[in-house]
């Protein structure tokens, strides 16, 4: 009896101490809010893990990058190499290249970490790109997430810059060829190009300042901006809630999914461990960027089969496809063959990415907040535009290796270049038309499934000899998913006599809106289906109200 009373008193004291400690912690930190955060609902779909793939790739990049920073020397001062890689003994090279060889052959685990770092960089950029495609095709950039879309595009741009900086640091013959191309691109900018080149390289190419400058950008400025923007991006995701796929119980006012703790945290931790293991295996067995095979950079040499990493391959392809156009004005030469594909084209590309959410909102009649993802088939014009952009990028990427393709297959490089120039116009157009046709066909298919039901594969013959196929009603969940579509609406056109008096900008807006939303297939609106849709009352476990 006495022992039980002492145990109860000890328990009450421990409970009181815990409560007091929590209250004091909550006075200084948002401890009470952490419990609510741990119950945040995450949609249970693999597509929502693409962003986490990019996040964990960035984490691996930071950890391996810190290790490499301890041993890399970005100096462009020349030395005579006497390291452990004997084929280059007695070769003149920069300290940057020599330190890269030192990491690869003399630092314990250095080559493994170098290759893990490179594989993680490629995965980081690829996962950002695929994540943005998911956001684009499902309409997750719409109000109120336009700001997060702008942050995502900026992250992609910074990731490209970070990748180029890291790729150029070893100062081998391959990366030096890339820097030669970068110097040409900078110099093609009218008026200020020459000054920017001298400032960046510390004089005439190759100069003495470019590697230290890229090193500072690679380990300080760009990573700091990336981490800051990722933090803001995640805060906005928590504040605005996740988007979710359409289905029973899922509306614009809730999020149905798994709580952050323990289900989502367990799944996410597993993804981190699997990704780290994959990087470790790739770093151990998948050779990448063997700088010792290329040799040190020399300004009078160019590496054969020089191919950049895939994320800047489209720039290489654009440079190769552009005709050799130049203009002489007042003693100055404007190199359109470099400026247009390498400066103007990326500027237009990222400008379109930044502006697209506002363009779609401009040509759409709806103005409310949207938290439920679109099915790509239901936004046929947007989906077709996205596929056309992918086709455009793919042609440029192939063109970036036209010399290798021509050599391997025994083709004429001039003929191949002309074929790719034509493909750059034809393939995106075909991609747009075929994708739009396919989306509309799928919309018609959804309408048929709602009106007639699902095919059973059984055919019956009537007494009069006629044949008809048997159908069964769609399951309730599928029926709700199809009927709950938020059909986009074009702007309402005024009467003809009023339309003629509208400003040109307004007429353009109306024309683009009609073009964007025309051919939309309307769903059947029979009374029974409307009642079935209304009967699917939203609600269910795991809802996170917003």
Structure description:
The chain has 546 residues and is mainly alpha-helical. The protein is built from 20 helices and 8 strands. Residues 536-546 have low confidence and may be disordered.
Report the count of strand segments: 8
Distance between the termini: 51 Å
- Percent range for helical residues? 55-70%
Helix-strand category = mainly alpha
Low-confidence stretches: 536-546
As a percent range, the share of strand residues is 5-15%
The outline comes out as globular
Strand order in the sheet with the most strands: 1-4
Largest sheet: 2 strands, antiparallel
| Mean of residue pLDDT values | 87
How is this structure best summarized?
Helices cover 63% and strands 6% of the residues.
Observed structural traits:
globular, 63% helix, 546 residues, two-stranded antiparallel sheet
List the helices and strands and how they pair.
Blueprint: H1 2-28, H2 31-38, E1 41-42, H3 50-69, E2 78-80, E3 92-94, H4 95-105, H5 110-138, H6 146-168, H7 173-187, H8 193-201, H9 210-240, E4 258-259, H10 260-285, H11 291-294, H12 313-321, E5 326-329, E6 332-335, H13 336-362, H14 380-399, H15 402-409, H16 413-452, E7 454-461, E8 467-472, H17 476-483, H18 496-499, H19 504-517, H20 527-535
Antiparallel strand pairs: 1-4, 2-3, 5-6, 7-8
Helix pairs in contact: 3-5, 3-10, 4-5, 5-6, 5-10, 6-9, 6-13, 7-8, 12-13, 12-14, 14-16, 17-20
